[in-house]
Design a protein that fits this description.
Blueprint (H helix, E strand, L loop, with lengths): L20 E6 L9 H8 L7 H6 L2 H5 L6 H18 L6 E5 L6 H10 L4 E6 L6 H17 L7 E4 L7 H24 L5 E9 L3 H6 L12 H17 L7 E8 L14 H7 L5 E7 L8 H18 L2 E4 L7 H16 L64
Parallel strand pairs: 1-2, 1-3, 3-4, 5-6, 5-7, 7-8
The protein binds coproporphyrin III and fe (ii) ion.
Length: 408
């Protein structure tokens, strides 16, 4: 498919601009038992999932008193990044808004406009390319502009997906280096011998979303930008973390936290299934590396620290879960650099051959499998900066056909 000619504002690399506010955008999470069902209603909005079914997927939130760790983590991230931007003399305030819980993106953008802001740069807590980690954010910015009558009044652009930015990769290199030493120490203490396996863990997504991830006009390993980005990162991290004499370490990419009906295929293998295979292959110790995640939210503290570490214990494997970037100085500096890149121009570092990723998403990138929904920061017909009224009635992104699970 050929890409239509685009003006500079819709080219893959956007010219620097005088953004007058930056918004840190995240998923959001419940802050008490009473929030849990309303939060899950927001996450699954438009799909008509009954509350009884939502109650079934709420057990991990219930277990932690209905409080997700994610909002506190984002408050810490917001404070650290605000301080870094202030230290660099960036005037634009750093705001914080979520897709699924207060403070909601729409309220934050409406308030930003009321406060006189006209050009906003969004940076999300999702590093990779997929519907859930990129386009769904862009749809929610678009929805906010449409619902609050801000189309054409408030401009929202986004920071490029930063999976291979040195600021994001650095903490993982450090985590794997330290983690290997810790697993070796555990093995020595307990007198166990065997190989070590590094499991790079990320969120599973439906196969159809994986295939639709990234731009339509490029080919990717395993037919998926999402998968290719994780594999490329894992290779860089292993390359840096492993010394030449460590011949007893292997690695693989595994998935976690799948949901939805079993009839819909999602990326596999699941981390727990992958673990079960390891003892027979002579593995005695594992590192669980939360490569797909920015902070220790529910996917990390429940699916890895609770479930996967329990699986390791049952299998008699020595195990260490390595840190997420969180508020690591390297990550904070990296995010500030990504913002500075859009304010002032300058270098666009990337540690894999896949990047640096696009400032403006290519046509059909990470398509919504159900229908074309208005977005921002893209170059499809349904982008509000391309067509300010939303998608033309006959416009559907290239990959929007084919009926995957409904979503709203
Ligand atoms: C790729 C990806 C990321 C990583 C990128 C990123 O970080 O954004 C991510 C992050 C997160 N996912 C989160 C929570 C949930 N994800 C769900 C459901 C889903 N996620 C999906 C994908 C992803 N999700 C998908 C394809 C679905 C099914 C369809 C749908 O429902 O859209 C559901 C619904 C219930 C269920 O099905 O279990 C919940 C509650 C939280 C908050 C955690 C906390 O509270 O600490 C976070 C950070
Ligand atoms: Fe999720």
């Amino acid at each position: 498919m050929t890409t239509p000619a685009l003006d500079a504002e819709h080219a893959p690399v956007q010219p620097p601009a005088a953004y007058d506010a930056v918004v840190l955008a995240s998923f959001g999470g419940p802050e008490g038992q009473d929030d849990v069902i309303p939060f899950l209603r927001n996450v699954t909005r438009g799909r008509g999932i009954p509350d009884e079914r939502l109650e079934e997927v709420s057990h991990h939130y219930r277990h932690f008193g209905g409080v997700s760790p994610i909002n506190a983590l984002n408050r810490d991230l917001h404070a650290a990044l605000s301080a870094e931007l202030a230290a660099r003399g960036v005037d634009a305030p750093l705001l914080w808004g979520n897709r699924n819980w207060a403070p909601f993106i729409g309220d934050v953008l409406e308030q930003a406009y009321a406060d006189g802001h006209r050009r906003v740069l969004a940076v999300s807590t999702s590093a990779y390319s997929s519907y859930s980690s990129c386009r769904q954010y862009r749809e929610d910015y678009g929805k906010a502009l449409l619902e609050r009558n801000l189309v054409g009044k408030l401009r929202v652009d986004k920071v490029r997906q930063y999976f291979d930015h040195p600021g994001f990769i650095g903490p993982f290199v450090e985590g794997v280096t330290d983690g290997l030493a810790r697993v070796r120490a555990q093995l020595a203490e307990t007198g166990r011998e065997g190989r070590i396996h590094v499991l790079f863990c990320t969120h599973s997504i439906p196969d159809a979303d994986a295939a639709a991830s990234g731009p339509r006009d490029r080919e990717f390993e395993q037919g998926s930008a999402y998968v290719a980005q994780h594999l490329a990162n894992a290779r860089v991290i292993m390359d840096r973390a492993l010394s030449a004499d460590e011949q007893d370490v292997d690695w693989s990419l595994v998935y976690q936290s799948r949901s939805g009906p079993p009839s819909v295929p999602w990326l596999e293998p699941d981390v727990n299934d992958a673990l079960a295979e390891l003892p027979d292959r002579g593995v005695a110790g594992v590192l669980l590396v939360p490569l797909g995640f920015v902070s220790d939210h529910m996917e990390v503290v429940w699916d890895l620290d609770t479930e996967a570490l329990e699986t390791c214990a049952e299998l008699g494997l020595a195990a260490v879960r390595t840190p997420t970037p969180g508020t690591h100085a390297s990550f904070i500096t990296g995010l500030a650099d990504l913002i500075a890149e859009r304010l002032e121009g300058g270098p666009r570092p990337a540690e894999t051959e896949l990047g640096p990723w696009y400032d403006v998403c290519r046509p059909g990138c990470c398509a919504n499998q159900r229908r074309a929904v208005p977005t921002v920061a893209g170059s499809d017909a349904c982008d509000l900066s391309v067509n300010p009224d939303g998608p033309p009635a006959d416009a559907a992104p290239a990959a929007a056909a084919g009926g995957a699970p409904s979503r709203g």
